[in-house]
Amino acid sequence: MNKIDGAISQFQSMDSMAKEDRWMNQIHPSIKLFLTVLFIGLTVSFPKYNLTGLFGMILYPFVLFQIGELSFRESLYRLRVVLPIVCIVGIANPFFDRAVVTRIGEIGVTGGVLSMLTLMLKAVLSVLASYLLIVTTSIEKICYALQQAHFPQILVTEVLLIYRYISVLLAETRRVTQAYHLRAPGQKGIAIGAWGPLVGQMLLRSMDRAERLYQSMCLRGFDGTFHLKEKSHVRRTDILYLLIWTALLLILRLFPVLEWVGRWFVR
Fold first, then answer.
1. pTM of the predicted model, to two decimals?
2. Which one of 1-5, 184-188, 198-202, 242-246 scores highest in mean pLDDT?
3. Residue 75 maps to a domain
4. All residues at 6 or more sequence positions from 202 whose CB lies less than 8 Å from its CB, including other chains
């Protein structure tokens, strides 16, 4: 399986996971969307030196991986390209902030190192929270949650169409690369001189197919408005889930819980 086939397979796998009949998948999409935004907002609001307090926010993705029956190792594999990129954000901090702010035994830790680790952890937690939302909620339900949050209808429709367009683009990329390799057997990769024409062909072919899909949607009555077939209703368990996580996240953000726990064990 080449890289394009692997990307298509992973894309379809995540889409099918979001449609599985699991407990996490049955939580109301508006509640999951709200908690994801709340978690990311609280996570990024930590001061740049408060690494200890930020560690407490690991509780949210850890518990969701457990109750959602999701593989953490498989998640890291799927995010192997994104995570290193987001971790680069604070890599220059140790060179600019060299003042020692704390010590671990006799080793001094500079503010740059501490802020770098804090930024990296914030980025990783935010990506994991977004990933958990995607693999436990279908794109239709996410758009429905955005609709319920009174997002502009045009933005909701764009999100849905862009998500669907990704699969179209990947399929056209696979066809073009397969056609190239059939005409150049034995060649490893694609010649640099052919990159430009191939990218142009993929763009034009995917645009043509997207136009045909759009025309098919219009023939079936699409008027620019997104409609969900089965509208979900908020249950008591959904409200309880929301209240518990909101309370826990606010406590972890406002109070130094890990420091209290550490002092208790030291005694």
1. 0.82
2. 242-246
3. yes
4. 169, 172, 173, 176
Query: Which of 59-73, 137-151, 173-187, 240-254 bottoms out in mean pLDDT, i.e. has the lowest?
Result: 173-187
**Nearest one of 51, 52, 32 to 129, comparing CA atoms:** 32
Query: Residue 1's pLDDT is what?
Result: 47
Q: What is the pLDDT of residue 230?
A: 55
Residue 178 lies in a domain: yes
Structure tokens at 252: 């972890």
CA pair distance 159, 142, nearest whole angstrom: 9
For the chain, helix (H) and strand (E) counts, in that order, are: 14, 2
Domain extent for 78: 1-149+230-258
pLDDT at 195 over 80: no
Q: Are 127 and 79 in contact (CB under 8 A)?
A: yes
* CA 155/CA 147 separation, integer angstroms: 9
- Asked whether the beta carbons of 232 and 141 are under 8 A apart, the reply is yes
- Are 22 and 135 found together in one domain? yes
107 membership: H or E segment, kind and range: strand 107-110
Tell me if residue 50 falls in helix, strand or coil.
coil
pLDDT of residue 39: 95
Q: How does residue 229 score in pLDDT terms, banded at 50, 70 and 90?
A: low
On whether both 68 and 200 belong to a single domain, the answer is no
Domain count along the chain: 2
Q: 118 and 238: one domain?
A: yes
Is 108 strand, coil or helix?
strand
Concatenated DSSP letters for 176-233?
HHHHHHHHSTT--S--GGGHHHHHHHHHHHHHHHHHHHHHHHHHTT--S----SS---
Same domain for 119 and 183, yes or no, is: no
Q: According to the model, what pLDDT value does residue 249 have? A: 94
